[in-house]
Amino acid sequence: MLRAICAISLGLFVFLVLAAVILRKENSQKQLENRFRELKQPHQRVQAQRTVGREKKDIPFRERVLEPLIKQLEQMANQLTPVEMRAWLNHRIVLACKTRQLTPGSVFGAMMVSGILCFGMLWVYAKNQEFAFPQMLAIEMIGTLVGMYVPLFTLHVMIQKRQKQLMRELPEVLDLLCVSVQAGLSFDASLEKITSRMEGELINEFRHFQDDVRMGMVRRTAMKNLAARCELQDISLFMTSLIQAERLGTSMGKTLKSQADNIRERRRQYVKAEALKAPVKIVFPLVLFIFPAIFVVTLVPTLLFLMKSM
Length: 310
Known about the structure:
Helices cover about 85% and strands about 0% of the residues. With about 300 residues, it is mainly alpha-helical. The longest helix has about 50 residues, at about 135-180.
């Protein structure tokens, strides 16, 4: 009898211990999920705090109607976006460095809205012109495709502008890195000095790289991610050379010096190529604007004199 009581008591004790451990684990898991949810929705939390204690008439129309409507439309567009297109749009947004302002759903929604607006305007125009049905259908299809391409073209322009800015900043940053490393600082210390005293697109990418390394990411992976976010050949070559130097144990100063010389020479060649394109590009403004003005200044007085003589 005593043994049975001891066995039941021991089993009950083990059950209570296991139940306590499981409940504690579930509570910690729920706390983590709630924390992640709060971190993912900071804007909503801030808006909720702002609206607490305010009457409906005191809340601006933008916070009360426009922002919730835009969020719902963005969520709907994100659900309608195909997976492959969502990944491609996300990559383009990363290249444009607009991850805080844009999402694949917002870009896809802008494409849909732009296509619908172009469809409506061309429908009104084609209806007033009384086109045949095949012509109207062709005009509507082409106009809708052009309208859907406008947000993508805008994103492409942002990417091109950012990449040009990166190319302009790369030689200077490499020279500063090379000088700092040759002066005795480590690569990380040199990068910390430069990022704390400079601003720019490339500096922001290096700050992102430093944050990734501080969060525990492997340096090689962080360097590859930096090259993928820029998608430029010069930066990819620079990151590859740093990865190889770190893997093989070669001198970082010599690697940075060779890369700085190489990038500076490539930049010089690029500027020369752009200068050689200038005569071709200047032909169009000459023909369209300068030559007509010269013809007017030189020929009109002669024509007026001949008309008076006749």
